[in-house]
Amino acid sequence: MEFTIRPLRRDDPADVDAAFDAGHEALRHNVPDFPPLSRADYHRGLVHPWPGQEVHYWVAGDGDVVVGALLLELPTLDNLHMAYAEISVRPAYRRRGVGTALYRHAADFTRSVGRVSLKGDYVKALAGGPPRDPGPGAFGAAMGVQAALDEVRRELDLTTVDRAMWTKQLEDARASAAGYRVVAWGDHTPDEFVDDVAMLDGRLVLDSPQGDLDVEPDKVDRARIRASEEVIRQRGRRVFNIGAVHEESGRLAAWTAIGFDPDETEHAWQHITIVDPAHRGHRLGMLVKVENLLRAVEQEPALRLVNTWNAAENTHMIAINEALGFRAVDAWVAWQQSL
Q1: What pLDDT score does 54 carry?
Q2: Is 181 exposed, middle or buried (0-12, 13-18, 19+ CB in 10 A)?
Q3: Taking all residues of the chain, what is their mean pLDDT, rounded to a whole number?
Q4: Domain span at residue 331?
Q5: 86 plus 36 within the same structural domain
């Protein structure tokens, strides 16, 4: 097959749509029941990347047809040794060398900018779960990547979950969280808590299992939090944040977030949930997660599904999620390769 790899024409909406469609078609094949991707977020992400991230895009073309796409993210504030690659090939064009060429392009570019590690992920079936195409895992093995961390995607179906158990979980959590109060916000963290949010966000790599991944904690400060909030607004996303405040010190001791893609009403993503180690043992993780779910359901009445990921060995957070009704769907393998 004859094809070329070229940079995405970011100023050409048709070219951007074609790249999005290639990625969407590939994901739909690999994970048929995955929540819908946001075309609006893809377009806006070209103009408004996350702070601390440099993003490059290429497409593989068979004549005028975009048959594959490559997204490469380069951290610019931390983890300066690495890059993250997302490779997509339309199912009808697989096993023709397109994915291999895109992977080699990603590796060559990563080396050319002085990075020494390439990372990515692929999905596989869980025992008893829905079937998944084994092709992405086989492709990773053929490229020589090393599986570094097993994660599991869980989904909360609000049309079937017994919400009465949320009431019981919330009552128990509140009883254990004497001396803490709940505070909620949207896309602008209250000034008095922004430094605490930065501290908690920066702890995520330290506090959650990372397996064999070669990653360092993100360098998060007030400016980075404010810049991220501005990107959320520019992309048209909606976010629900809730924290638990230690009343004696006035500091934020726990924090969780739920986010919606632009124009999406039926599906949301459960993002970070983290508790300051100094305040563990008070069921603060459960407290903030239930409070935030209740708030999201109240303000987003069309919400039907919430998805989240946890490291397979993160038994504490998995227990909280499953107590709330999240159920395992499939496995996601984070891989890395030294260049």
Answers
A1: 97
A2: exposed
A3: 97
A4: 156-338
A5: yes
